[in-house]
Amino acid sequence: MQEPTSSEPQPGSEPRQQPDSEPAATRRTADVAESSRANRGWWDRNADEYQVEHGTFLGDDRFVWGPEGLDEVEAELLGPPEELKGKDVLEIGAGAAQCARWLAAQGARPVALDLSHRQLQHALRIGGSFPLVCADAGALPFADGSFDLACSAYGALPFVADPRLVLREVHRVLRPGGRFVFSVTHPIRWAFPDEPGPEGLSVAASYFDRTPYVEQDEEGRAVYVEHHRTIGDRVRDIAASGFRLVDLVEPEWPAWNSSEWGGWSPLRGNLIPGTAIFVCVRD
C-alpha cells in the first residue's frame, strides 16, 4: 500500500474520546473551515484509541455500515459482491480502510480517502494494495467521472457544515449510473441524550434544532464538531446535488449484537433507529 497523499477534511461519526484537557460541550454555529480544522485534529489525536476500542468489531477487512453491525456482504447496497469485480470505488471517510480492503477482496479497485493522516497510517499498518488519499471530501482530488461507485460508512457527512459540497463532489467524480451509499447517525437521535441506558430514551431536545454540537477548548476553539440534518434535509441535499434517492435503510438491532458503542446499545437499538443509510444514484 502506498503512503497517503495529501489535500484534506472528513471522517466517520463517533462517540467522542476526549483530548488531554476536557473540552466544554456546547451548541453553536461552526462554519466549513472551523469544522474541518477541528475534526481533522480530533481524528488525528484519537485514531489510536479508536482503532484499539473498535478495531475488533470493525475487523481488518469487513464492510460494516454502522454500530448495529449490518454487513455489506448481506445488505448488498452497492450491488451483489460478484458484480463489484473491476469496479472503481471511492471510500470516503475510510479510517483504517476496512471497507476498502473488503472491496479489494471482491476484485474491485478501491481508493480510500480520509481527513485524518493518522487514521490512514493505521490503514498502512494493516496493509493492502490500494491507494490512500488524505483529502477534503468537499474538494475531491479526482477527475470527473473517475469512479463507478462511492461509499461512506459514517464518514464526512456528519462532520461537514455544508453537506452539499460533499455530495456535489461525489456526483462529479462518479460516472453516469454510479451509486453513492452513505450511512450517518439517524437524525432522530439528535432529539435524545447520547446515552446507551434508559436515560437515552427520553426526548431532551428539538429534532428541528440544526445548531451543531461543538466541543471547544478553554479559548473557545472548536476541537470537535458534528452537524445535524433532519431526514427531510438529507433528502433535499441529495436531490439538490443531482442524485436520485433509491432507498433509505434503517437497520434494526440484531439479536447477536450485545455490544455498546457510545450511545448505541441493544436497549436503544430495539426501540429507536440508530443509523440511516442513504442509497443514491447518479443518473
Write the layout of secondary structure elements.
Layout: E1 5-6, E2 24-27, H1 32-58, H2 72-75, E3 88-92, H3 98-105, E4 109-114, H4 117-126, E5 132-134, E6 147-153, H5 163-173, E7 174-185, E8 213-216, E9 222-226, H6 231-240, E10 243-249, H7 266-269, E11 275-282
Parallel strand pairs: 1-5, 3-4, 3-6, 4-5, 6-7
Antiparallel strand pairs: 2-8, 7-11, 8-9, 10-11
Helix pairs in contact: 1-4
The total of beta strands comes to 11
Order of helices and strands: EEHHEHEHEEHEEEHEHE
Shape: globular
Q: End-to-end span in angstroms?
A: 33 Å
Q: What is the C-alpha radius of gyration, as a whole number of Å?
A: 17 Å
Q: What's the rounded overall pLDDT mean?
A: 93
Strand order of the largest sheet: 1-5-4-3-6-7-11-10
Helix residue percentage: 25-40%
- State the low-pLDDT regions, or none: 1-19
Model description:
The chain is 26% helix and 22% strand. With 283 residues, the protein is of the alpha/beta class. Mean pLDDT is 93; it is low at 1-19.
